Amino acid sequence: MDRVVPQFIRPRRPMLLPATSAGTCLLLLCLGSLSAVEPSASETVSEAATTGLTLLDIIRLGGFLMYVLAGISILALALALFYAITLRKEALIPARFFSEATDAAHNQGVDGLAAVCRRFDCPAARAIMAGIQQARRSTHPDPQMVLGAIEAEGNRQAQKLWRRIQYLNDLGVIAPMVGLLGTVLGMIRSFNAIYLQYGTSKPVTLAGGVAQALITTATGLAIAIPCLLLYSFFRGRTSYLIGQMEERCEALSAHILNEQ
What are phi and psi of 75, to 5 degrees? Predict the structure, then answer.
């Protein structure tokens, strides 16, 4: 005769399914391989077990803030490309300018140097031109005033470069803040599902809010880290270029003072 197991000690496996599903969903979300689950469509759970997230699924789960983060990433990429093109030695302190300026200063004096500065549109040419204009204001210009004019214009050009790359740093700070906002909105969404479906909430009803919280946070960090790394790189390059510009402008300023 078969032994009958009492009902109160019989393992009730259906009660373990919600907790197991919730743990599985959270683990898959953290690994970035959560199956495609619509927050309001529980019938897609079985299908999501065999299909991974597409880019469109990630954007949809992350909510409208994913479009904001996408815009930030595109802007950051555009700025990085712009800096890579403009923050070059040949663009800011071209060797051709200093070669022609030195030859003109030796052979034609300050007038030849001024003509070369007018032909080149670069920060170094503007700084030297400021010194020439200061020297021409009197028949016996003060060397300190000439050097001060060159230094003042050089500082203005340097500040323009620093302000230019600061935008990349700003994007690196804004991106994780937007991701944090998505985290807060996602958790509010999950708690709201628990509140509205108290006693009957299932992992699938919470997955949408949890997905939004994790996806937006990860996306914000994924954008911020490269932005800050690129900002650090361009900051070092800008500092180097400014130092080179100061040295070469100082050498050319000697020709202006000797001419006077």
Answer: -65, -40
Q: Are 82 and 164 in contact (CB under 8 A)?
A: no
How far apart (Å, rounded) are the C-alpha atoms in residues 132 and 257? Answer: 9
Q: Are 54 and 36 contacting, i.e. CB atoms less than 8 angstroms apart?
A: yes
Identify residue 236 by its one-letter amino acid code: G
- Max Cα distance, the chain (Å): 125
- Say if CB 186 and CB 209 are below 8 A apart: yes
- How far apart are the C-alpha atoms of 67 and 75, rounded to whole Å? 12
Ramachandran quadrant class, 2 (left: phi over 0; alpha: psi -120 to 50; beta: rest): beta
Rg for the chain, CA atoms, rounded: 32
8 A C-beta contact, residue 256 and residue 112: no
Q: What is the pLDDT of residues 92-145, one digit of tens each?
A: 888 888 888 888 888 888 888 888 888 888 888 898 888 888 888 877 777 888
Reported as a single tens digit per residue, the pLDDT across 141-159 is 778 888 888 889 889 989 9
The secondary structure of residue 197, as a DSSP letter, is: T
Q: What whole-number distance in Å separates Cα of residue 146 and Cα of residue 144?
A: 5
CA distance 131 to 255: 11
Distance CA 192, CA 126 (A): 61
C-beta separation of 92 from 124 below 8 A:
yes
Which residue bears the tokens 């907790």?
19
Please report, for the chain, how many H helices and E strands are present, in that order: 10, 0
| Angle, CA 235 vertex, CA 69 and CA 86 arms, to 5° | 80
